[in-house]
Design goal:
- The structure is a single chain.
- The protein is an alpha/beta fold and 302 residues long.
- The strands form three sheets. It has a six-stranded parallel sheet with strand order 1-11-8-7-5-6.
- α3 crosses α11.
- Bound molecules: nicotinamide-adenine-dinucleotide.
- The site of nicotinamide-adenine-dinucleotide has 24 residues, from α11.
Amino acid sequence: LEYCLTMTAQRIDGNALSQKLRAEVTSRTQVLKAKGITPGLAVILVGENPASQVYVRNKVKACQDSGLHSLLEKYAEDMTEKALLDRIESLNQDPSIHGILVQLPLPKHIDSQKVIEAISPHKDVDGFHVVNAGRLAVGEEAFVPCTPLGCLMLLKDHMGDLSGKNAVVIGRSNIVGKPMAQLLLAENCTVTIAHSRTQDLPDVVRRADIVVAAVGRAEMVTGDYLKPGAVVIDVGINRLEPEVGQSKGRLVGDVAFDDALRQAGAITPVPGGVGPMTIACLLRNTLVAAHRRAGVAAPEGI
Ligand code: NAD
């Protein structure tokens, strides 16, 4: 009996689902190329942030693997805001480029919001422009930020219909938390957004059938935050201090994975959960941008 009462959560495999999506993008890219259109993504990196270097490299590599055209432009830390805005304007005009991504964070002397607003909403494949955020909020066709879009795909793949589920999103950033809440609302979930000023966070989270943790605090969400059977999507990427003899610390999420396994119904690992979906969704958004630009019906079902 004791054995039966011990729950072990399923692992939600982000690598597997992202590979499926990327294969789909690859084949639809071939179809589009046959019509003379190659989807193109420009990735801009300003400065030397080591995590950002890895992210942009992975994004460009993923484009190449799926047959998309990509452009990686790296600029020095002291690039002026004006120079960056001018570069974005010329990419807005460039017909070979369908998506423009400026890797965040930007150096402090550059106003990120101003830079995001300079990107044409038609090429805003990160979905950060106010036009796309607004369109998402009112339920119009929009570019949706890649990370929450990837989270939603993982949830739907695992659970099917999300209608009527209680969802708690922890974190209210414009990049993850807020658009995640909008997407879940559009799926007819009852959505709560928790954040740094939320009182009794564990009590709030324990009501959830679906938990999305996007906080940036290593292993903050423990098993006692979870209702038995809850489906947990861990967005956090946190590097722990290196252990003795190691040069790099381990990567962990915002959820204490092993502890959560005892309560959750299913959970995404870090790495291998949300991260790979984010990249796959970037390719997907770029592909969709290329379809829209060409006036070709956007690919269904991806
Ligand atoms: P952010 O710092 O902009 O936002 C964090 C949010 O967490 C804030 O809204 C804040 O209110 C909330 N918060 C902070 N402390 C809290 C607490 N004690 N209790 C409850 N809420 C609290 O971060 P972000 O950009 O939304 O990213 C969140 C995490 O997700 C980070 O670890 C980031 O590295 C990761 N991330 C991963 C991917 C991916 O591809 N997997 C993409 C983007 C971000």
